[in-house]
């Protein structure tokens, strides 16, 4: 029989089931000919085209037709995709995935997410990614008479 403290310890060492569920939902969509979409919470750790982010979220098409070199790892999801004809590298921490669903029927799964809690999480650094550039102020127009 397992002792309570051994059970607690073994449960705390268990990896999150989120990356496994993401891979399963992607596979389910692909197997049935659906287009897998992934909704992502965007903060400084997420590498996506910022011009497509709305309300700190972005929805990404992760089908084999839309992206190349898709890697659904336990900590990071990475791939290359074209946005406006320009190839871009996408890096998303698994913790920031809000949902994976089929575009055609909306079926899939959403994941709990607390942005305040995400800032406290320790996430392995992105491999070979330069530090974030400081954001520049938005240009503004003034009327000159």
**Do you know the CATH architecture?**
Roll
* CATH level-4 homologous superfamily: SspB-like
- The figure for the number of domains is 1
For the sheet with most strands, the description reads: 4 strands, antiparallel
Strand content: 25-35%
Structure in words:
The protein is an alpha+beta fold and about 140 residues long. Helix content is about 20%, strand content about 30%. It has 3 helices and 7 strands, in the order ααβββββββα. Strands 2-1-6-7 form a 4-stranded antiparallel sheet. The protein has a 3-stranded antiparallel sheet with strand order 3-4-5, with helices on one face. A hairpin with a 5-residue loop joins β6 and β7. The longest helix has 14 residues. It is globular and about 75 Å long. The protein starts with a helix and ends in a 27-residue tail after the last helix. About 10% of the residues have low confidence.
What is the topological layout?
Blueprint: H1 4-12, H2 18-31, E1 36-41, E2 57-61, E3 67-72, E4 76-83, E5 86-93, E6 97-102, E7 108-110, H3 115-118
Antiparallel strand pairs: 1-2, 1-6, 3-4, 4-5, 6-7
Task: Give a short summary of the structure.
With 145 residues, this protein is α+β, with helices and mostly antiparallel strands.
Key features?
7 strands, 145 residues, SH3 type barrels, 4-stranded antiparallel sheet, 3-stranded antiparallel sheet, alpha+beta, 3 helices
